Amino acid sequence: MKIYKRPGAFTLVEILVVCGIASVFLATAVMLFTNFRRGFSRSEGTAILMQEGALFVARLRNDLNNAILVPVVAGNNESQLNSTPDHLSFSVYSSREAKALPVIYRYQPSESGGSLFRREGNDSERVLIKER
To answer: Is residue 66 over pLDDT 80?
Structure first.
């Protein structure tokens, strides 16, 4: 009886089966990576917004703690605290300039949420929360 010895190479069917299984694993890995990346980007944006919001609340709390009543001058009918739906202004004591300065918070609405700005005295307006 003759014993047939199989050569050490793989058959075409075996190679195709391995390629099919490898492509399924590769496609699954790519899909998992893209979903992870998409979720990470979303959570990163949320974390940035929460951090900016916390900084805004801390800044507003500090300004309200330092808010002062400015003496009313004859002919000046301005109230100590002015507010509208997109604007808040009051006076705070500035230790840097050793006097009362007006502080103005402004909200600029947009379709994606909006932006918050703060201006103190004659300084330029600074962005507290950017539109995303």
So the answer is: yes
